[in-house]
TrEMBL record:
GO terms for cellular component: endoplasmic reticulum membrane; Golgi membrane. It comes from Arabidopsis suecica (Swedish thale-cress). This is Post-GPI attachment to proteins factor 3. It comes from the Eukaryota. Its main location: membrane. Keywords: Golgi apparatus, GPI-anchor biosynthesis, Membrane, Signal, Transmembrane, Transmembrane helix. Residues 1-22 form the signal peptide. Belongs to the PGAP3 family.
Length: 313
């Protein structure tokens, strides 16, 4: 349950601090001029990008690079933006100026084509921890605890926790993909996955903290939330990716369930209550990493990536 609380906090903060608004860097005239020239010439200084001067299909298969080399490329616009950003940040450093964000992100150093390598690595580790937790839950229920005659578990919330585990792992997977390559598709998949697990987490929080076991009551509670979450996911994918509205939805669902779990920890006599309180306090402290944002150390470790690392233990 503490695991559930921490994931809800992660998703809430992701919605709050992943809004891709215009930044100081991409408004810089020198940066914009560099991109415009690069998209025409295909070069930034002495470095040229073949994909800026090639057809969309890449030409015949026999003159294309192997797939294991192609996946590291970002396309003309992506490579122009990155190299212009690198050059502009070198100039700013020479002038003694602090780094600035470009298109909502700090100037990271790519590794094998990965845009935010530290966040990707920590997202993968969080995914591994969720898999470990889900697998441990499965083994405990079906191999360490007694079962009913039909081989099902006595615990009434088994199915709900299994679905939660799968949705959480899916969310961390797309978090890793999104931090690896920030394009429109990966952004929408990351946002949609986060909203899906937040919505289901809210349902789970209500059912578990109020100890709802009657099937009909569970359906009555779950149906409107499922309908709303499904509609919202369709809205941000097929109508408009409204960052402000998405933030409101995430905050509403996230804060509601955090209060539900805090209330449950206060009134329940569950033996693991102390774990939940540890997560509540640690989560509050970890939020400081998102509030007091800072540029990436050595081009890799910014506040957001370190916060991803903090969620692993």
């Amino acid at each position: 349950m503490a695991f559930h609380y921490w994931t809800a906090l992660f998703l809430l903060l992701s919605c709050l601090f992943s809004i891709s608004n215009a930044s100081a860097g991409d408004a810089d005239p020198d940066y914009r001029t560099c991109i415009s020239e690069c998209e025409i010439s295909g070069c930034v200084g002495q470095l040229c990008f073949p994909q800026c001067n090639s057809s969309s299909d890449g030409g015949p298969w026999y003159i294309q690079e192997p797939l294991y080399l192609q996946w590291k490329k970002w396309g003309c616009q992506g490579d122009c933006r990155y190299q212009c950003m690198v050059n502009r940040e070198r100039e700013r450093e020479t002038l003694g100026q602090a780094p600035v964000k470009y298109h909502g992100k700090w100037p990271f150093k790519r590794v094998l084509g990965i845009h935010e390598p530290a966040s990707v690595a920590f997202s993968v580790l969080n995914l591994a921890m969720h898999f470990h937790g889900w697998l441990s839950f499965f083994i405990t229920l079906y191999y360490k605890l007694p079962l009913k005659q039909d081989k099902s578990a006595y615990y009434e919330y088994v199915g709900l926790w299994h679905i939660y585990g799968l949705l959480s792992m899916n969310s961390w997977f797309w978090s890793a993909v999104f931090h690896s390559r920030d394009v429109d598709l990966t952004e929408r998949l990351d946002y949609s996955s986060a909203v899906a697990v937040l919505g289901f987490s809210l349902i789970l929080a209500i059912l578990r903290t109020f100890d709802i076991r009657v099937e009909a009551t569970r359906v009555m509670v779950s149906a409107p939330i499922l309908a709303f979450v499904t509609t919202h996911i369709l809205y941000i994918n097929f109508y408009k990716l409204d960052y402000g509205w998405n933030m409101i939805v995430c905050v509403a669902m996230g804060v509601t369930q955090l209060f539900l779990w805090a209330r449950w920890a206060a009134v329940s006599s569950h033996p693991s209550n102390w774990k939940l309180w540890v997560v509540v306090i640690a989560g509050g402290l970890a939020m400081l990493l998102e509030i007091y944002d800072f540029p990436p150390y050595e081009g890799y470790f910014d506040a957001h990536s370190i916060w991803h690392a903090a969620t692993i233990p």
